[in-house]
Amino acid sequence: MQEAAPAYIDDPEPSGDLYELVLSGQSDALTYRINDLSATAANDISVKLYATRPDQEETTAWALPLAWLQLLLEPELAEGEPTLRVVTDENAEAVIVTANRALQRASLTEAVRSGLHYSSAEEAAQPRYTIHWSDDRRAVIRLPTLSPGQSARLVLDGVLSAEGEPLILTRPQGSIIELHGGPA
User: What is the reported pLDDT for 2?
Assistant: First the structure.
């Protein structure tokens, strides 16, 4: 919780997987709501924690790193092999990358630069993308110029943890990540 930073509440608020955390004491309990945004195309926040204290009307929100939620929900991830998970969001023209270790940012940037291929010759000549880091374990890769009917393929080879360990892509669809432009 020391890594929690005050956060704002959007209108509308992005929605991810929702959890409830109840901390009980001898005389009272505090209920927190957790919004797991790690598999969404939210650029700047991986996890939001909300609390409404009994003596307050307003809800307070904090932003937390993905490592906090992984420790809470999947503590075995820290002991497992270094892995990389990928989710695509075609409506947002985004590839969401998460890991069970802190990522070496330069290795992900290089993997995207060398592994991104567009279906059209004009885009292939000058592929455009942005990488948004919400924390050391999560990044959102956006392909803002992907047009309807166009597709892009991405292979994330050579991504390393901050400690230099190679990360293994765990994806049932295989190592080629494909994204299509236009309405999904």
Answer: 64
pLDDT above 70: residue 130: yes
Nearest to 182 by CA among 128, 130, 146: 146
Is the CB of residue 42 less than 8 Å from the CB of residue 140?
yes
Distances in Å between the alpha carbon of 15 and those of 12, 46, 48, 73, 105?
A: 9, 11, 10, 18, 26
Per the CB < 8 A criterion, the answer to whether 47 and 34 are in contact is yes
Q: Report how far Cα 38 is from the mean position of its chain's Cα atoms.
A: 4
DSSP 128-154: --EEEEEETTEEEEE-TT--TT-EEEE
Q: What is the mean pLDDT of residues 114-124?
A: 76
Quick: pLDDT tens for 76-87: 988 899 999 999
Say if residues 156 and 112 touch (Cβ distance below 8 Å).
yes
Going across the sheet that includes 17-24, the strands are: 5-7, 60-64, 47-51, 29-36, 17-24
Sheet with 83-89: list strands edge to edge.
130-135, 138-142, 94-99, 83-89, 168-169
181 versus 21: the higher-pLDDT residue is 21
Q: Which residue has the higher pLDDT, 29 or 83?
A: 83
For tokens 């820290």, name the residue. 78
